[in-house]
Task: inverse folding
């Protein structure tokens, strides 16, 4: 076990898409219905992004919340080859509207009907230029479980090609300022809650295929208790593992990697105070065996709390100071 | 003899801008919209909104008085009723014109909920999520509000008026249940147990203290069919039993001659089995189309879960109607009557009983402009007629 002077706090990191303000949501609806201009809608999104960015103080890597993405998968259908696209109707994605885990949020399930590869600039085409930024993408396992596949013979092959396409996107991401890529793997925790205990051996290897030089790779496991998933991250080439503190019963973990500790609950309206954050961090530091280097963040995306609450939660993360 | 393939809307229609902007300046195009649709639907009251003398409610300088706002909403409701009648629907309601939004409108009538903020659900669709800070209970005014809404529609249509409102499971799921969470934690519970117990107590409180008083009041007002909307039905598939328990509590005391309908959408329906066999509801309106082709129907394109749901209804011998969603509410592409008919015939074949099949869009058509929603509904009704003709009706 490490001593307190061997721990290094490296800042906070968001862990996924953020919510939009009520004004932006309303403008989006007006735009959809032909009552507002696209420029009005984009300006509203830009305003929200600026607020999210400016709320992030002492963050290791910053994000604008990927507000234009709408869901975690749809832009991928346009920046990767291998997806079925709709020819008419003004909506590129083909698949059915599907619930996002246990939330009142939905995504359009993409249909994979060809070999996955990066197209044009890849995900960078759907992200703003930002210095020292983090990008969020689905982890290979979650990706493979969330899409409809009619091309690949195995989930492993699908996940591997997706991860390779992500790796090939890295250069363009770096050109836009991205220095961290966080892969989110909620499907693991979701399946654990349904009783699943054994996961495919290929999961860590698929994550490793997304790793490239010059960009830090994280793998986050929302909805899961830390002890249940740490091996999946440990066996990969990821630089750090994201642990969900609010869903963890304890922190008895053993890893050589850095850790991103999800101390802010993305599913509750209550904004965590400093005492609550500090006690979670202290509990973790007392129980876990890890590299000693840690970040803090939300346990999951801040999409399921109102914009103003999300800003307050980001503020709470910004205010965190290591007690001496 | 029972009419085959009863047609109905699920609930919402888009609210025209002149209805939305009760407190905001109107454009000339808003006034024109009121005139054009009013003439098309034969709503005489349109002249109260806009007239040649320039004295119409929408032409008056704002702010409107409360009476004027109420009248504008009433006239918007008449537009929605006429839209549904002219489409040919057997059952109509008000397109939720008097309401703000499906969660928020009911939440405003409930003691114990404070407004939180707006959350996106899908694309440009969003909902308000409240914070529950006390035990939930519908206000006396809330019960009256729903009764008055129903009475208004009943008075202005000769079709069957079908009131609908958000169900207990969805109301609880779309709220931050802070009061109930604190309550269970104060009893020493922690983690997942505290979460699931607090959810259960809140869901049943919404059923007993909020939904049931409204339902019973509507029965007293003469409602022959009542629809509870549960889009969140399978959000947590481990809660199917409490979902059914809440439906039963909501309909407690409702006589047998009143149809008890539940609408669900974009959900994992098979996860409701076998619990749903214990439900007192006798109609389920479900989404079935979800982005399928508007012009072609192929059995192999039917989503496996939806297909399985129909099979399960048959397998469990549920004596319930199934309202089959034949209209995609997330697309401007307009389904042909033929594709509607093909979907209905397929559902009738799988269920093995055309008597049990009702006809509706996947969900409320609030997502589509009227110039899209109206032809979609017209074609839906025509498709139902084509299906009936296959059975000699």
Result:
């Amino acid at each position: 076990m490490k001593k307190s002077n061997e721990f290094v706090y490296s800042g906070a990191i968001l862990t996924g898409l953020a919510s939009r303000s009520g004004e932006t949501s309303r403008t989006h609806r007006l735009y959809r219905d032909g009552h507002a201009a696209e420029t009005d809608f984009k300006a509203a999104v830009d305003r929200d992004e600026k607020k999210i960015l400016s709320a992030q103080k002492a963050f290791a890597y910053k994000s604008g919340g990927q507000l234009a993405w709408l869901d975690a998968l749809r832009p991928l259908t346009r920046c990767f080859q291998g997806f079925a696209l709709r020819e008419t109707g003004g909506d590129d994605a083909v698949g059915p509207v599907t619930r996002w885990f246990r939330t009142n949020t939905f995504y359009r399930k993409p249909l994979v009907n060809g070999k996955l590869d990066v197209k044009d600039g890849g995900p960078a085409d759907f992200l703003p230029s930002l210095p020292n930024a983090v990008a969020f993408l689905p982890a290979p396992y979650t990706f493979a479980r969330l899409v409809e596949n009619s091309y690949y013979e195995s989930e492993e092959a699908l996940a591997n090609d997706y991860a390779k396409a992500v790796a090939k996107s890295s250069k363009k991401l770096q050109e836009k300022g991205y220095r961290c890529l966080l892969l989110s793997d909620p499907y693991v925790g979701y399946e654990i809650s349904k009783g699943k205990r054994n996961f495919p051996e290929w999961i860590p290897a698929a994550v490793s295929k997304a790793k490239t030089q010059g960009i830090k790779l994280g793998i986050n496991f929302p909805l899961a208790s830390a002890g249940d998933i740490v091996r999946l991250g440990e066996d990969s080439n990821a630089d750090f593992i994201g642990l969900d503190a609010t869903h963890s019963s304890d922190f008895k973990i053993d890893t050589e990697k850095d850790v991103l500790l999800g101390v802010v609950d993305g599913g509750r309206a209550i904004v965590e105070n400093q005492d609550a954050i500090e006690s979670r961090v202290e509990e973790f530091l007392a129980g876990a065996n890890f590299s000693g280097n840690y970040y803090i963040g939300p346990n999951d995306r801040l999409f399921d709390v109102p914009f103003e609450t999300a800003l307050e939660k980001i503020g709470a993360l910004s205010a965190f100071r290591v007690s001496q | 003899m029972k009419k085959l393939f009863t047609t109905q809307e699920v609930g919402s229609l888009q609210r025209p801008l002149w209805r939305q902007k009760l407190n905001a300046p109107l454009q000339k195009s808003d006034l024109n919209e009121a005139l054009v649709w009013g003439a098309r639907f034969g709503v005489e009251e349109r002249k109260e909104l806009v007239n040649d003398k320039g004295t119409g409610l929408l032409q008056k300088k704002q702010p409107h008085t409360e009476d004027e706002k109420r009248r504008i909403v009433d006239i918007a409701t008449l537009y929605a009723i006429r839209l549904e009648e002219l489409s040919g629907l057997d059952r109509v309601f008000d397109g939720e014109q008097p309401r703000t939004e499906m969660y928020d409108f009911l939440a405003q009538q409930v003691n114990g909920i404070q407004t939180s903020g707006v959350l996106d659900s899908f694309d440009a669709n969003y909902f308000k999520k409240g914070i529950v800070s006390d035990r939930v209970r519908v206000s006396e005014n809330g019960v009256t509000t729903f009764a008055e809404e129903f009475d208004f529609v009943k008075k202005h249509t000769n079709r069957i008026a079908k009131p609908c409102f958000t169900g207990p499971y969805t109301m609880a799921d779309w709220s931050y249940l802070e009061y109930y969470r604190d309550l269970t934690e104060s009893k020493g519970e922690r983690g997942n147990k505290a979460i699931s117990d607090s959810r259960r107590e809140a869901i049943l409180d919404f059923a007993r203290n909020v939904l049931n008083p409204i339902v019973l009041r509507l029965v007293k007002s003469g409602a022959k069919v009542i629809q509870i909307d549960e889009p969140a039905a399978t959000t947590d598939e481990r809660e199917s039993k409490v979902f059914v328990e809440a439906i039963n509590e909501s309909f407690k005391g409702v006589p047998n001659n009143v149809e008890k309908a539940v609408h669900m959408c974009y959900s994992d329906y098979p996860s409701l089995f076998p619990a749903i066999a214990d439900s007192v509801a006798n109609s389920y309106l479900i989404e079935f189309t979800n982005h399928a082709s508007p012009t072609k129907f192929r059995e192999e394109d039917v989503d496996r879960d939806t297909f399985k749901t129909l099979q399960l209804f048959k397998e469990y011998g549920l004596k319930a109607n199934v309202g089959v969603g034949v209209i995609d509410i997330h697309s401007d592409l307009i389904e042909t009557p033929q594709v509607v008919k093909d979907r209905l015939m397929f559902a009738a074949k799988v269920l093995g009983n055309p008597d049990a099949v009702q006809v509706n869009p996947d969900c409320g058509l609030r997502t589509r402009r009227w110039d899209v929603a109206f032809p979609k509904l017209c074609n839906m009704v025509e498709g139902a007629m084509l299906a009936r003709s296959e059975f000699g009706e």
DSSP finds eleven helices and twelve strands in chain A. Residues 86 and 235 of chain A are 39 Å apart (CA to CA). Chain A has one domain: 9-318. The radius of gyration of chain A is 19 Å.
